[in-house]
């Protein structure tokens, strides 16, 4: 089964994007107004990954390391207080008791005690659990977290154009399901995506840059206009603002007309946990590299990380000039920073319960693969 998935990925693989290049139409960095995070840790280019593709592979694992209590001297003076230390110690002792372990009280200077309490706490945590110190409402807090198993080699971009291949009741079910999938998981509206301010502009420049191919230019110009204010824009807007039907009821009542519809209905039924309930994939958008320092003035990274809402999103198609350019932009951004992986976390207090992360991201990823394969077959009319 694993070999089969790898083979499918190789078939879908596209050309690696290695950089911005000399083509002025490909240069986008100067157009981006990068958002400023409230807290940003120091990071070097050596920790950056290479490039990510919605269907490709990385050669280097993303670098995510637990935060250490190594704050700037000014921050030590502000936050390494007896009050914060006593609170952290009480929380650590309580949590150690939940794990059936004892916690030894460290001695030394203020800085030494904070470092020792951190490392002693890390030592008693279960395998796979990591620890951060964070400043929340001007108080130091423990945050225990776990990074989920996740295919960091691809973009989780869900194409929705397969819906246009459906008719009748099955189309209504697909529209309602995808609407709920988008809204329940808090996926960004395509027209409001991070890159929307400059994506269409760059695509237009790239189209005009192509010479001696009038048919291709005309085709791509029509596609671009459709994305901006034509049929594709109207479809994506309808999908996002739809008043959905009761999908669970419709799935039980519907009788598939052919084997492919049967596979689609079965996949929708498997996906019901991802369109209902309290959980959302964006709930796991905790970044250990960012959410561990109290003040951004000590850090001067040029770019923000590649966040989870850009890794998981919906698109119209996985292979057209607009989405291909979007992929180029995202790859170029990731080369300068790193990508966030889904992470469960819990802020600890003196009365906290044991941290028990669920497997929502793993189940989400497994279902996503299956859904993508079915959409490909629908478009191929298999």
| Distance from first to last alpha carbon | 21 Å
Which term fits the overall shape?
globular
Structural class: mainly alpha
Number of strands: 5
Helix and strand pattern: HHHHEEEHHHHHHHEHEH
Q: Which bin fits the share of residues in helices? A: 40-55%
Query: In what order do the strands lie side by side in the largest sheet?
Result: 1-2-5
Report Rg.
24 Å
Tally of DSSP helical segments = 13
For the sheet with most strands, the description reads: 3 strands, antiparallel
Number of domains: 1
Strand content: 5-15%
Mean pLDDT: 78
Unreliable segments of 5+ consecutive residues: 1-67, 292-300
Write structural notes for this entry.
The chain has 382 residues and is mostly helical. The protein contains 13 helices and 5 strands. It has one domain (2-66, 149-379). The strands form 2 sheets. A 3-stranded antiparallel β-sheet has the order 1-2-5, with helices on one face. A two-stranded parallel ribbon has the order 3-4. The longest helix has 20 residues, at 360-379. It is globular and about 75 Å long. Mean pLDDT is 78; it is low at 1-67 and 292-300.
Q: How are the secondary structure elements laid out?
A:
Layout lengths: L1 H11 L60 H7 L2 H17 L11 H15 L5 E7 L2 E9 L8 E4 L8 H17 L11 H14 L4 H16 L1 H11 L5 H7 L5 H12 L37 H4 E4 L5 H16 L6 E5 L12 H20 L3
Parallel strand pairs: 3-4
Antiparallel strand pairs: 1-2, 2-5
Helix pairs in contact: 3-4, 6-7, 6-12, 7-8, 10-13
């Amino acid at each position: 089964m694993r070999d089969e998935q790898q083979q499918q990925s190789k078939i879908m693989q596209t050309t690696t994007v290695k950089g911005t290049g000399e083509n002025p139409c490909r240069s986008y960095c100067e157009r981006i107004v990068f958002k400023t995070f409230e807290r940003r840790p120091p990071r070097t280019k050596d920790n950056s990954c290479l490039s990510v593709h919605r269907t490709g592979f990385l050669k280097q694992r993303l670098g995510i390391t637990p935060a250490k209590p190594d704050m700037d001297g000014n921050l030590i003076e502000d936050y390494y207080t007896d009050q914060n230390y006593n609170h952290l110690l009480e929380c650590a002792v309580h949590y150690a008791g939940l794990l059936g372990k004892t916690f030894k009280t460290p001695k030394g200077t203020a800085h030494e005690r904070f470092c020792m309490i951190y490392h002693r706490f890390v030592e008693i945590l279960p395998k796979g659990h990591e620890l951060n110190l964070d400043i929340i409402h001007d108080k130091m807090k423990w945050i225990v977290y776990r990074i989920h198993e996740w295919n960091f080699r691809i973009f989780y971009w869900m194409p929705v154009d397969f819906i246009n291949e459906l008719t009748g009741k099955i189309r209504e079910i697909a529209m309602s399901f995808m609407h709920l999938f988008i809204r329940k998981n808090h996926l960004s509206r395509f027209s409001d995506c991070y890159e929307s301010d400059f994506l269409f502009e760059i695509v237009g420049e790239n189209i005009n840059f192509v010479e001696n191919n009038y048919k291709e230019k005309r085709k791509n110009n029509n596609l671009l206009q459709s994305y901006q204010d034509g049929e594709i824009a109207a479809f994506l807007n309808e999908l996002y603002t739809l008043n959905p039907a009761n999908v669970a009821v419709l799935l039980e009542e519907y009788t598939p007309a052919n084997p492919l519809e049967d596979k689609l209905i079965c996949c929708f039924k498997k996906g019901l946990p991802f369109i209902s309930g309290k959980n959302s994939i964006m709930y796991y958008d905790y970044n250990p590299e960012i959410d561990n320092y109290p003040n951004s003035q000590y850090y001067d990274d040029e770019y923000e990380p590649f966040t989870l809402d850009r890794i998981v999103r919906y698109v119209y198609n996985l292979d057209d000039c607009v989405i291909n350019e979007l992929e180029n932009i995202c790859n170029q951004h990731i080369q300068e920073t790193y990508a966030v992986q889904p992470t469960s976390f819990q802020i600890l207090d003196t009365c906290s319960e044991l941290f028990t992360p669920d497997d929502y991201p793993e189940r989400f990823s497994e279902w996503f693969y299956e859904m993508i394969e079915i959409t490909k077959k629908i478009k191929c009319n298999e």
